[in-house]
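Onboarding guide, step 5: your first structure request.
Type a short instruction followed by the sequence, for example:

Predict the 3D structure of this protein.
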Amino acid sequence: MNIIVHRGTQQIGGTCIELSTKNTRLLLDIGQELPPLNEDRIEPKMPLVKGLYHDDIKAVDAILVSHGHGDHIGLVEHVHPEIPIYIGEKALRIYNVTAQFTGRNEISNPVTYLVSGKELKIGDFSVTPYLVDHSGFDSYAFLIKAGGKFIAYTGDFREHGRKKPATGYFKKSIPSGIDALLIEGTMMSRINETVETEEEIEQKAFEFMSAKDKPIFVLQSSTNIDRLVGMYKAAKQSKRIFVIDIYTAHVLSQLQDSIPQPDKFKDIKVFYPRFLTNRMFETENGAKLMKRFNRFWIGKEELGNRNDFCMLIRGSMLYDLQGVGNLHGSGLIYSLWSGYRKTHKVKRLLDYASSISMEIIDLHTSGHASMETIQDVIDTCKPKKIIPVHTEEPELFAGKFPNAIVAKDGEAIIV
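The system replies with structure tokens like these:
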């Protein structure tokens, strides 16, 4: 079996890994590079993979998508339309509804849903996906066999979120002495970063909400479902209504009924951000999307007259925040990676919050494996070769693990 990490040996994001035998070629993820912190977007840079794109003669047999974050799936709309995509059902639903709100194309390739523990046959390969804990909903790792060789790919994973048992089950399922372990190492460049559990974040959020008699805002990703569930529980326990915007409402509507959503939970209201609403109503399908949850609408005037709510916001919602009165002395929970504070939109929003004397606290934990979890996986499966990916510090692996390979993008590794 040949392994080529087309992108990801020296950077976080933009993951694209090729596995091949004489007869079959698979890709693990097809991610877009993360933009610099001072930019919202960058022009997509395509990994050099023969037979992958629209204008090529199809020569890739399948793409396995570990999860729906853009740095793992963001280039999927550029791939040849006949290449099958293997992805979790909920991850696909979130991707497609996000595409409707952002003007991107929904996935139209043939799709097979990943089912945790269910083996797939793709040419020479046998692939078994395993659900893992991650900040991206419906995330998978893979055990892959071909030609008598056995490798594992962790995707992005962790063991301090709400699906910790899933990661534990995956670890136990990796055979000892596998030929190669492709393991993410995001946190290798953030070793000193505090790693808390999602339950600890939820408890601290509840304590903050309970101590204030003013509105609470939470600056977080709409697709970080584990975090959203924790914030909802904290709001409910502190007797606050939970306010989400119309995009977040649609994301949640793609998930199971146990996840908080406005038409299933009576204490959830839906806010319509001005710029998003105006843009969506310019298209026929957008107008339909915007009207779906209008019976749960809450406006700026009502919010300005209430103190008993917790509202999720994004960096793009500064205008809406400015339009809500009675916010002096309210609270804001910053629940994102600290690096995003440097982005233009987030900085402006936080500066405004400070200008009206909002109390701002940081409550966040990584979506990625801690050093302890990385060590435990390696100790458990004792791989013959360790191939770090999704990391800026592959050399740290080599310094800690003698069998780690510090590869370069595009370099062929034979197992």
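Each response can be followed by summary notes, for example: The chain has a mean pLDDT of 95.
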